[in-house]
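Re: that chain you flagged

S.,

Sorry for the slow reply, it's been a week of failed gels. I finally had a moment to sit down with the sequence you sent. For the record, here it is as I used it:
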Amino acid sequence: MIDPLSRLRDYNPNLTISQVVKYFERQGMPVTKPMIQHYVRVGLLPPPAGGRYYVEEHMRRLVLIGLFRNAFGLEEIKRLLDGLGPGMETVYPACLGMMERAAGMAEEMRGILADSLPDGIERTAGGRLAGMAVAAAAKHNIEDEKQGG
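Prediction finished late last night. Pasting the structure tokens below so you have them in one place:
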């Protein structure tokens, strides 16, 4: 899986909310202005820098929120992200790797389910399974770190 933020270096490091939405749109990730504003209100995202600009930390959190949303509610995601703190630098690439492996498993699952489920359902099930696998693995890693090992 290609890091959704790999092209971020081609952009200004301070993005407005409209630029953030356009960036993720180009990456094929559904992020909207109301979503971002809601995430700031509920504490999933820190307020924009200077009240207007979103930086790489915001973008990284948005990617993780998108991955975790398939398996957790927003309050659980907030606890996960808050638990990461500075560990996000380590967890982010690990989550991308897990997502790549989960996508492979989801593709395998789609193949297995393709013959037995009505059209369209296997795609949804595979995508949810991949998101759930990444979220569960990230939660497990965070709990291990808290327990010291």
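What I noticed first: Residues 8-146 form a domain with the Multidrug-efflux Transporter Regulator; Chain: A; Domain 2 fold (CATH 1.10.1660).

Talk soon,
D.
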